[in-house]
Each structure stands twice: as C-alpha cells, then as structure tokens.
Automatic annotation (TrEMBL):
InterPro entries in the cross-refs: CheD-like_sf, Chemorcpt_Glu_NH3ase_CheD, Cytotoxic_necrot_fac-like_cat
Descriptive protein name: Probable chemoreceptor glutamine deamidase CheD
UniProt xrefs under CDD domains: CheD (cd16352)
Function field: Probably deamidates glutamine residues to glutamate on methyl-accepting chemotaxis receptors (MCPs), playing an important role in chemotaxis.
Enzyme class label: hydrolase
GO BP field: chemotaxis
Gene source species: Pseudooceanicola algae
Pfam families cross-referenced by the UniProt entry: CheD
Gene3D superfamilies in the cross-refs: 3.30.1330.200
UniProt EC number: 3.5.1.44
Family: Belongs to the CheD family.
One of the record's GO molecular function terms: protein-glutamine glutaminase activity
Amino acid sequence: MKRAAGRGPNINITQGEYAVSDHEGGVITTILGSCIATCIWDPVRKVGGMNHILVARSQTSGGTNDYAGVNAMELLINGLVRLGADRTRFNAKVFGGARMINGLSDIGQSNGSFIVEFLEKEGIPCLGKSLGGNAARQIKFFPSEGRVMQRTVAGAPEVLQPVKPPEKPVRNGVELF
C-alpha cells in the first residue's frame, strides 16, 4: 500500500493506494470491482481519506492472513491522525467487493467481510456501505464533508453475433429489364 502521488484538492487513487486530504471542496476518486475502498473522516477537523484494497484477506497454509488489509487500514488511519484527525471521532463508509467473474473464488465477498469486521473491532462506526453485487463502482469521496457519490458501472456489453446479410437469390445470370 502506498500513498497516492497527488496532493492537490482532487486525487485519484488506484489499487494499493490511499490518500488523505483536508482541502475544503477536495475530492478523492477511484473505480472498484472486487476491491474495496474505505472512506474515513473526522467531521470536526474536516479531514478524510480513502484507500483502495485489492486483496484484504488471503488464505495461507497457516490459515487466514489479514496482513494486507490491516496494513492498508493502519496507513489510512495514521495518515488522518497526522493531519490532525481524532480517532475517537472517525466515521466510515465502505464500497466495493463485487463478484466480477462467475465461477472463480469470491474475493469481493472476502474483502467486504474483512472491512466490516475491522471497523467493528476498531470501534469505527460504519455509516454506510455498498458491498457485493456484480457491477463495478465509481466512487467520489469529499473528505472535508464525509459525503460520497457512487455510480455503478455496467459490465461489458454482451457480444452479439453479427447478423448475416440475406443471401442473394440464385439466378441464371440473365437479368431482365
């Protein structure tokens, strides 16, 4: 997990990135499939941040490993604290965790359950969530307000077979006029 390169009022994050901001009117954006994004903000200090977690929880020979998800959340929380946020005032909203490809493991469901459990354990109220489904999501987070806009992105259109043009009638080579 790394901090996004952008530091201005408008920041776009991708897989494995996070961003924090205290810009009034600023926005942090991302696009999610099976990944999850957590938007956390302090309503008094008017500071917020978002992360984009690709795989929060993995299965290993020793059992379940939450290292990647915990690391992503701690980086986001520590970034907010560095901007003056108070952890006791945090609120959160979570998005993503879609099942993008049928027939494969449902990593989106695992990501979603990780983030809900993490927030509960840490005592951070989750004021809204949009998890699961089978559509991608575009997320716009306004960190100073705690407001989030979500737009679902339809999957790839179904590939249609081209319609064959009607066959020309068989003729004897003589054209009458």
